[in-house]
Amino acid sequence: MSDRVELPCHAKVNLLLRVLAREADGYHGLETVFCRLDLADTLVVERVADGISLVVEGADVGPERDNLAWRAAEAVLSATGRRFGVRMHLTKRIPAGAGLGGGSSDAAAALVAVNRLAGDSVPLAELLNLAARLGADVPFFVMDAPVALGWGHGERLLRLPPLPPRPMLLVAPGIHVPTPEAYGWIDAMRDQAGRRGSVALHLDALGNWSDLARMGGNDFESVVFGQHPPVRAAFEALAQTRPLLCRMTGSGSALVAVYRSEADRADATAMLGTRHGTVLEVRNA
Q: With contact defined as beta carbons under 8 Å apart, do 142 and 108 qualify?
């Protein structure tokens, strides 16, 4: 049994995100299509005698015990009887607080890595339950699917076939959008506008970029754009680069565009410059 595990912690984008009604527990139902990117943090986990330590390189993410990766390691060690401890080193590359799932992906990698050090003694079903308690996006990353349809609170997942590989751009305006506030903005808007209309999802349409582009966008876009005009400006600039698909991901503020070719993406990169934030070239993975 290995004493060291190294895993990538991939970013994700939401190619579709519908926010449904607020439920009795205060949480909202969701319908979303997750898509994994090649952009990734790296987590190295080593077995030690006892305890948990976490060193983060590349970003200031606050106290280690508040980090989702630390909490994930704690959950697996508790579930396996605390037979050992772990030392973790996390290298951050995914922009934080932008809707790209970096913290959730780090947590998923910690769950999987610590469980591997424990001889995979926690079954996948239970690992997914632990993931759901940590956050809505964490089960998708534990599932290790390139694309998945998610619903409920994001914990119910249907693995989908990979989409054709395409060059993408991420634009990170550098604005942090707290998710609870974004949900509050949606609730306030719907109190005035009435109930959301019914929609239908067609699984056949989730397998190609053109149909996904026609299925609608992200329900957070209108409220986030209203609260943060620079995010709207970045979206409008990105949409003018002639992508196949253009979305805000999660509750923002990162934006993603999908292109037909590397040449189209190169032209888009030149058009955007750095006026609207950090621009990253990525692909679906």
A: yes
Instruction: Match domain 167-283 to its CATH number in 3.30.70.20, 3.40.50.880, 3.30.70.890, 3.30.43.10.
Output: 3.30.70.890
With a cut of 70, which residues of the chain have pLDDT below it?
A: 1, 192-200
DSSP H or E segment with residue 169: strand 167-172
**Which segments of the chain belong to CATH 3.30.70.890?**
167-283
Task: In whole angstroms, give the CA distance from residue 20 to residue 43.
Answer: 34
Catalytic residue among 12, 41, 219, 264: 12
Q: Which of 131, 110, 164 is nearest to 285 (CA)?
A: 164
- Classify domain 4-160 by CATH architecture: 2-Layer Sandwich (3.30)
Selected catalytic residue, list 106, 137, 219, 264: 137
- In this structure, the chain runs to a length of 285
Determine the Cα–Cα distance for residues 144 and 254; give it in Å rounded to an integer: 22
Q: Is 92 a catalytic residue?
A: no
The two tokens of residue 228 are 């943060």
Active site annotation includes 137: yes
Give CATH 3.30.230.10 domain extents, the chain: 4-160
pLDDT digits (tens, 9 = 90+) for 118-153: 999 999 999 999 999 999 899 999 999 999 999 988
